[in-house]
């Protein structure tokens, strides 16, 4: 027998014999027959090519090798028991990590979902990473992320066949100003006139939203007056609050900010869909499955 192959059952039998100092009493405690117990211990000794028990006296004693081996047998059984409890914890969602990739805009839009999951499963660690839109899909496919949150241009986005797609929310993009801006109280202002005449504070071209806005400008032959562009949503919002500049953001983000309001424009500018992506095949952790299930019943905060 290969001495590297040792079964947990044989370790349990050895511990029982050592504790009871008797094959008979150990067999009774384990609810097995004495011949079965003796046979298993004998096989363990043969696999190790050394005697573990001294059977010569009235009571069974450990040999020197048996004393050493018993110490490690107990440790091994303890680790196996810990492993079983760890698996149980996974199923009970008492531990786990989810690697989540989001764009710098979608993280604002789904923050209530992240909070909802964290409150429901406080022992699960959400590792959220801000990433470029084009990097998220590849990272999920390559198993560098468990879940990705991304923009899609329409309700049925074109995406790799290796991924599953779930729509989280649909939202519109709007012009927004600070409460002190002269347009804040006006109704029915003309969208194209504002885009051509007002100074804008926009996210830079690293953002998918900006790329879509630039495409809109091109389609409508608009030469925008871009006063400031930044790679920080927080910076854009602070500038707009000061009351001079106009920005372009999803309505869900605008509604969550104090001191900023959407303009009451005569027409909608853009619509977009935020989707959750995950691998279609391969292993999906229990925690990851719980997040996806919760996202299916999540409702975005009222706007």
Helix proportion of residues, in percent? 40-55%
Mind telling me which CATH architecture of the largest domain this is?
3-Layer(aba) Sandwich
Average pLDDT, rounded to a whole number, is 87
**Largest beta sheet, briefly?**
7 strands, mixed
N-C termini distance: 70 Å
Q: Quick one: overall form?
A: rod-shaped
CATH T-level topology of the largest domain: D-Maltodextrin-Binding Protein, domain 2
Instruction: Kindly state the number of beta strands.
Output: 13
Which structural class do you get from the secondary structure elements?
A: alpha/beta
Q: What integer value in Å does the Rg equal?
A: 32 Å
Annotation field: number of helices: 12
| Count of discrete domains | 3
Q: What is the chain-wise order of helices and strands?
A: HHHEEHEHHEHEEEHEHEHEHEEEH
**Uncertain residue ranges:** none
The CATH class of the largest domain is Alpha Beta
Strand content: 15-25%
List the keywords.
Arc Repressor Mutant, subunit A, 303 residues, alpha/beta, 3 domains, single chain, 44% helix, 12 helices, rod-shaped, D-Maltodextrin-Binding Protein, domain 2, seven-stranded mixed β-sheet
Tell me the layout of helices and strands.
Blueprint: H1 8-20, H2 23-30, H3 34-48, E1 53-54, E2 61-62, H4 64-91, E3 97-102, H5 106-109, H6 111-120, E4 125-130, H7 133-141, E5 147-152, E6 163-178, E7 187-189, H8 191-197, E8 199-203, H9 208-219, E9 225-230, H10 233-241, E10 246-250, H11 251-255, E11 260-262, E12 264-265, E13 270-279, H12 286-297
